Amino acid sequence: MSPITTVLFDMYETLVQNPHNLWRVGVQDIIQEQSLDTTPELLWEEWTLGETEFRDSRVRPGVPFQSYFQGWRDCFIRSFEKLHLDGDPDAASRSFIKFISHRDPFPETNEALKIVQLKWRTAVLSNADDDYLLPNLELLGLDFEAVLSSEQAQVYKPLPGLFSQMLDTLKVTPGEVVYVGDRQLEDVKGPLELGMHPVWINRSDNPAHPDLPKPAYQISSLLELPALLENWPSK
């Protein structure tokens, strides 16, 4: 019998498709909604500068937690000021969250998850706001034993707090848990530091970053996961 009892899944770019270049469409929608005198390229360039800073700073010691809504709103405030636009940053952030809440699953997601759920407990743990994560899960149409977002936990991966809260919720030990995600920093380093077993889903066969922990297990499709779990080494 597999020593694994529980499989935790990241959401975006693991279960559902959310490539960063698709976000440009959301920026274009905001320009149209607010009749802003700019181009998608200019607003996207300014916005991503702030968004990168937000992602980098949010895991630094002593930095207060900000939800994605708050962080993205601040990015729009900065962008509108820089481009001299009379825009509504709150409305822009709400629009972007609504845009992210409708993401299609990968072609194999539902089939693979239904197989996994026959033998293992499953849950979702994601850096996300509930306002887009929960509607997206509803569209996915799969039941999970628990769902925990960074907004609920008030902490972001790879910091241990998010993972620890899920372990407490499910009442499981780290050694019996696999975490499946697409990012080497958030989804490999984070769970590994708590003693969980990360499985890196690397659909594009990207090389591992040499400065980050390399996962012992790597898959290119969720359909590879059931066999990996079934044959999980006992030691």
What brief labels describe this structure?
DNA polymerase, domain 1; six-stranded parallel sheet; elongated; 235 residues; 6 strands; alpha/beta; Rossmann fold
Poorly predicted spans: none
Largest sheet: 6 strands, parallel
* Radius of gyration from CA coordinates: 19 Å
Total of helices: 10
**Quick check: average pLDDT?**
95
Helix content: 40-55%
Estimate the strand proportion: 5-15%
Assign the CATH architecture of the largest domain. Answer: 3-Layer(aba) Sandwich
Query: From the helix content, strand content and strand pairing, which structural class follows?
Result: alpha/beta
Distance between the termini: 13 Å
Instruction: Give me the side-by-side strand order of the main sheet.
Output: 3-2-1-4-5-6
What's the CATH first level of the largest domain? Alpha Beta
Structural overview:
- Helix content is 46%, strand content 11%.
- It has helices at residues 23-34, 40-57, 68-82, 89-100, 109-116, 130-140, 150-153, 160-170, 184-193, 225-230; strands at 6-9, 121-126, 146-149, 177-181, 197-201, 217-219.
- The protein has a six-stranded parallel beta sheet with strand order 3-2-1-4-5-6.
- Helix 9 links the parallel strand 4 (177-181) and strand 5 (197-201).
- The longest helix has 18 residues, at 40-57.
- It is elongated.
- The mean pLDDT is 95.
